[in-house]
Amino acid sequence: MTNARQALPVGRNDRCLCGSGKKFKSCCLPRTEEERKRLFEDMDVPRLNDGFFHFHPFRQLSSAMLLHSSLATPTLEQLAMQIAGRIRPDEAELIRSEPDPLKLLDLLEEGRITNSNHPYLLRKLLPHEAVVIPALLSKLSESDQDALIEQGIRFLNKTTGFPLPQLEELALSASSPYVRSCVCLLLGVRGPETVLPLLWRQFHLLRTAHPEESLSEGPLYGLYELAVRFGRISLKFPEHL
Known about the structure:
This protein is mostly helical. It has helices at residues 33-38, 50-55, 63-72, 74-83, 89-97, 101-109, 118-125, 129-142, 146-158, 164-173, 177-190, 196-209, 217-229. Mean pLDDT is 88; it is low at 1-6.
C-alpha cells in the first residue's frame, strides 16, 4: 500500500516542478498526470522536489522505513540500549568480555547476537571505528545477512570518520541489492548534496529491477533526507516522522 496524495503540490502561479523556471500554468498544467510523471523518470536528470514525491510516495511499511526511523530518531536506539542485556544477559556478557572488535563483528555476522543486544554491541564497536570500518565495508560488499547489513548501517551512521568515497562505491558495486539500498539511505542521511545523482539513479535502477520488492525505498528515503536537509521540498511526507 502507498500514501497516495490526490493533488499535485503546486499552484497555478507557482514555479513549475519540472524545473523549466516557468509558472505551472504556462508549462505543465495542460499535461496529463502520466506525462508529468514521465518528467521524473529520467535517470540522468534528477528533479528532486515535491512533484517527485507526489509521483513516488512511500510505502506504509517497509524495512527501509524502520531503518530510516532508527537513523533519524536516535532516541529510539537509546531506549533500546537501556534494556539491552535484560532479555539476554548471556549475550551481553559475551559482548562485554570480548576485547577484539573484529571478533564482535563476526558474532554479528554469524547471527549470535539478537536484536535486544545490537545497540550494546554497536556501542562496544564505536571506540574502534578505525579498525572496524574497513572490515565492515569488506563484509558488506559480499554479505546478504540482514542483521549485519542493518546494524552495519546503524554503526556507520554513528562514526566520526564517515567513509564517504567507500560508501559511494559500495552503493554501486555491492553484490546484494539490499546493501545497495541501505547504503543509499545512509548517504541521504549523512552525505553531501553531491550524492544526489547517485541516489536518484539507484532509486530508478532498483525500482526497475525489483518492481515487486521494496528495495527502491532505501534510496527513496535517502532522497527524502537530501530534499529536507537542502531545502528542496516544502512538506514532510513520511507519516512515521
